[in-house]
Every structure is written in C-alpha cells, then in structure tokens.
Amino acid sequence: MYPAPFEYHRAASAQDAVALLGKYGDEAKLLAGGQSLLPLMKLRFAQPRHLIDVRRIQGLSGIREEKGMLVVGAATPYATLAASALVQAKLPMLSEAAAQIGDPQVRNMGTLGGSLAHADPAGDLPAVALALAAEIAALGPRGARTVHADDFFVELMTTALAPDELLTEVRFPLPPAGSGGAYEKYPNPASRYALVGVAAQLTVAGGKVTAARVATTGLATKPLRALAVEAALQGKAADAASLAAAAEKATDGLKLRAAAQMPDAYRRSLAVTFTARALTRAAKRAGG
Amino acid sequence: MARISLKVNGTQHVHEVEPRMLLVHYLREVLSLTGTHVGCDTSQCGACTVLLDGKAVKACSVLAVQADGSEVKTVEGLAQDGRLHPLQEGFWEEHGLQCGFCTPGMLMAAYGLLQSNPHPDEHAIRAGLEGNLCRCTGYHNIVKAVQHATKTMAEGTSKTAAPARTVGAA
Ligand SMILES: Cc1cc2nc3c(=O)[nH]c(=O)nc-3n(C[C@H](O)[C@H](O)[C@H](O)COP(=O)(O)OP(=O)(O)OC[C@H]3O[C@@H](n4cnc5c(N)ncnc54)[C@H](O)[C@@H]3O)c2cc1C
Ligand code: FES
Ligand code: FES
Questions:
Q1: Which residues of B touch A (CB under 8 A)?
Q2: CB B82 within 8 A of CB B43
C-alpha cells in the first residue's frame, strides 16, 4: 500500500522544521518515527502534501540531567529510553513503560515526542508524562513555550500543541528523596497497545504518602489522572491495605471509551488490579 | 522525485525515488532484493524486518527517503563468502521454518536482538521476536534456532558459518 503522494523535507534544525511548518501550513505534517503516521497514511486516513522529517535533527534526541530535571529530546526513540542507565536509575517508570511499547522494531523507530503529540488514547508514555508531572516544551513561530502535562492532553488524539508547533523536548522533574514510581500495563494481546496502563508516582515520608500522582491510559478517550486514587492515598499509610483501598477508586468518575473486545465491568476490574500493582511497586521503590 | 543515497549490504546506491515509496518496495523493486517480504503491509507481522543503521525496523513502515544517508542490511547480507550466518545455520539445524515466509524477518529481528544482547535467554529471545508473526511453526523451533546460533557463535563451533565477530559489523 502506498500513501498518497507528498513532498518530503528533511528538517536540518528545530527552527527549520518550524519554518517549513509555517510555509506549508495545513498541508504539512511532522514525521518522527512514523510508527503511527505512516500506517495512517498508507490507509489514506492521513494525506499530508508535505512531510517534514524531524527524526534526524541534531539536538532533538538525547537524554540529559539538568537543574533537577531529566530532559529528553522529542526524537529520542523508545529503545534508547528503555536502555538508558540514567533513566533506569532516575525514573524507572519511564524506562519500563518505554520497554513495553509495541515490539522491538516499533521501539527502534517510535519517539517520545511522537507518542505525546499523537496522543493515542491507549498510548503508554502519555500516562507516564502525567504521573511524572512532565513539562512539554514546544517551539513555534511565536517562540518557545512550555505546557504542563496536565494541560497537554485535550481530547481524543488532540493536544495543546498548535498545528504550527514542534514538540522539542520533555522535561521530567526529578522526584525528591523517598519517591518511587512504576508503570503496569495489560497489553492487548494482538496490538500490544494498553487495554489498561497505570503510571503511579509516590513520595513516602515516615511511612505516610506525602505526594501521589496516578494516571491511566487505554480506558478513556485520553490519558487521565486518577484523582480519586490520589486523594485516597494522600496522608495515608503506604501499606498494603491503604494502597489496595485507594486502587479500588481507579475508575471513579471515569467515562470509559467504547471498546468492542470486552465488557466494561472487566475493564474497570483490570484497572483496579493494575493500579494496585503499580502502587505496590511504586511504594516499594519509594522505600515505604 | 527525491534523490536518495544509501548503503545496502555494504554497497552504495543512489536512486531517484518517489517520496512515498516504502523502504521495502525500494529494496524489492528497485534493488531486486526480494528476500525481504511483505506480509501484512500494516506494521504487524515483521516479515519486512531489515536493519536500518544497525537497528531492526519494519521496512513497510519506513519510507525509502527516511533511509537516505543510512546503512541497510537485509537477509541477503547475512551469508558471507558463501557461508551461512550462524543464525541461518540455526534455522536449518533446528527446523526453524516451514513455509519460510516469515523467515527473513525472523532472521533480521534475531540479528538485531543479538546486536544488543549476544547471550539472550529463552525469555529474551521470545521478547525479542515479539514483533514477528509465524503462521507455521508455533515459534518453538524458531527459538531453538536462535539458541543454536548463540551457542555456536559463543563456542565457535558453527559448521558453515562466519565467525561470531561478524555479528556487530553492520
Ligand atoms: C505494531 C505497533 C504497535 C504499537 N504499540 C504501541 C504500544 O503498545 N503503546 C504505544 O504507546 N504505542 C504503540 N504504537 C505506536 C507508537 O508508539 C508510535 O511510535 C507513536 O504513536 C508515534 O510516535 P512516532 O515517533 O512514531 O510518530 P509519528 O508516527 O512520526 O507521528 C505521529 C504524530 O505525531 C506528530 N509528531 C511527531 N513528532 C512530533 C513533534 N516532535 N512535534 C509535534 N508533532 C509531532 C506527527 O505529525 C503525527 O501527527 C504501536 C505502533 C505499531 C506500528
Ligand atoms: S509487512 Fe511489514 S510488518 Fe508486516
Ligand atoms: S514458517 Fe511459515 S510463516 Fe513462519
């Protein structure tokens, strides 16, 4: 299957990509790993006239620690995130989530920026970005700006990025001492996308949870914070009983996206189970 | 049209291609390297797996223009000087194929796996081949084939194959 015809542009820099986006407007699309966009173009669900390839832009990929943040370039592939000793040490939730995306071939091409910008309702890294309170940096004709993950995912496959903006990097604040995070996923056995994915980040002091951010993916039209779980954890003991009680609230107030494969009650039950698992491992890593 | 220049199995090629041409079609139709197969054409089956700059990718989900300036390795590039690669020998010895349709993709995915992990255990082999579907074998002999290769490569006991150190040279 061939995509509809288009012109290909390989951007030399982030500024170049933004200039090309400005020049071609609605007819242009950015191309990163292509692991969502190219299948869509082959099925003719997307027919951009201009593709702007950002995958090889120098400086758009790479991982560094800077001012209390782990900064990851938008074009960094999942395989690099999964294998990075720095990510494994500082934010193991991020490396373990990246290691569970699709399959090795997809992980060699697919990128952090592409995953967040695409905002698939079953994507893994959007949930991780929410749980880690990531700051998402964008460059556009009006300059650079940062969007908090809480404000980034707007609706089904819709983000706060403007069509003429490039996602340049993602800044993950490094959590304080006594923190731990974990990602738990129940993959669709065929597609490997999350039927349920849960990202949990806890800070524990004196045996009590002092901060909690929990996000789910695969359930609704976009990744969501599980605010009821977070509230139930706040100030409580980081023990098995309290974590399990909080996990019971995994889908409180959540409107499930239609999914033909399985009954809603089962999906809600999966969400509770995987939230409990994520909380348990996060608390363990926090030392609680 | 776009001009691309890339190295495939060690040979430099320059061609004018339509930007929408997929890498797998470039390999098969322009270079006549038909060892790389198209199975699903929807990014699912891995039959089209090749190495792009040393990493396994699905060539039906990569544009030829994206490979401009890159090195590509296909199943045709595995055997050296008429000798099968230890992975190919493993598939032969362990009956790792039946119809053979998935085999080039399996070989290249396994090759990609061994680049990052030369001594995978059974679980790592299965995880490393997760992006490749086989309708015939039930996977078991494919796993054994890769185990055979890692063993002969480590021991240097391969009958036909090039020595282990050729894995890693792109
Ligand atoms: C077989 C298969 C299995 C998969 N399984 C999973 C899974 O289990 N979990 C999961 O999360 N995903 C999965 N995916 C999807 C994969 O994660 C994609 O890589 C991801 O959705 C898109 O990232 P990309 O880099 O490939 O982006 P592309 O496909 O190149 O682009 C996707 C969209 O993002 C935009 N974009 C890309 N980069 C930027 C940027 N820097 N700034 C602004 N916009 C940008 C593009 O314009 C496009 O609209 C799977 C894909 C396949 C083919
Ligand atoms: S043909 Fe490329 S993944 Fe099936
Ligand atoms: S041997 Fe027939 S598909 Fe694998």
A1: 2, 18-22, 25, 41-43, 46, 49, 52, 55-58, 61-63, 65-66, 68-69, 109, 112-113, 116, 127-128, 130-132
A2: no
A38 with B49: Cβ contact below 8 A: no
Q: Give residue limits of the domains in chain B.
A: 2-77, 86-166
Whether residue A126 is predicted with pLDDT greater than 90 in this model: the reply is yes
In the CATH scheme, what is the code of domain A179-286?
Answer: 3.30.390.50
CATH of domain B2-77: 3.10.20.30
Is the CATH number of domain B86-166 2.160.10.10?
no
A62 contact partners, CB below 8 Å, separation of at least 6 = A72, A73, A76
The class level of CATH for A7-53 reads alpha beta
**Structure tokens that stand for A244 in this block:** 């399990």
Please state the pTM of the whole predicted model: 0.96
pLDDT band at B167 (very low <50, low <70, confident <90, very high): very low
* Side chain identity, residue A41: M
The whole-angstrom distance between B99's CA and the closest CA on chain A is: 22
**How many Cα atoms occupy the beta-carbon half-sphere of B120 within 13 Å?**
23
Distance B136 CA to ligand 1 centre (A): 31
Residue B27 CA to ligand 2 centre (angstroms): 14
* C-alpha A216 to ligand 3 mean position (Å): 37
Q: Summarize pLDDT for A3-25 with one digit per residue, the tens.
A: 999 999 999 999 999 999 999 99
Of the candidates B33, B21, B29, B9, which has an alpha carbon nearest to the alpha carbon of residue B66? B21
Query: Which residues in chain A touch residue B113, judged by CB atoms under 8 angstroms apart?
Result: 104
Let me know if the fold of A7-53 is the same as that of A179-286.
no
Mutate to test the pocket of ligand 1, among B22, B41, B44 (most ligand atoms within 8 A of CB): B44
pLDDT for the residue A191: 86
Closest chain B CA to residue A56: B66
Residues of A in contact with B51 (CB under 8 A): none
The secondary structure of A142-197 as a DSSP string is TEEEEEEHHHHEEETTEES--TT-EEEEEEEEPPPTTEEEEEEEEE-TTT-SEEEE
- Torsion of the alpha carbons at A37, A115, A137 and A93, rounded to the nearest 10: -170
| CA neighbor of A274 nearest in space, from A194, A184, A202, A182 | A184
What is the ipTM metric for this complex? Answer: 0.95
CATH code, residues A63-173: 3.30.465.10
Q: Which atom of ligand 2 is nearest to the CA of B38?
A: 1
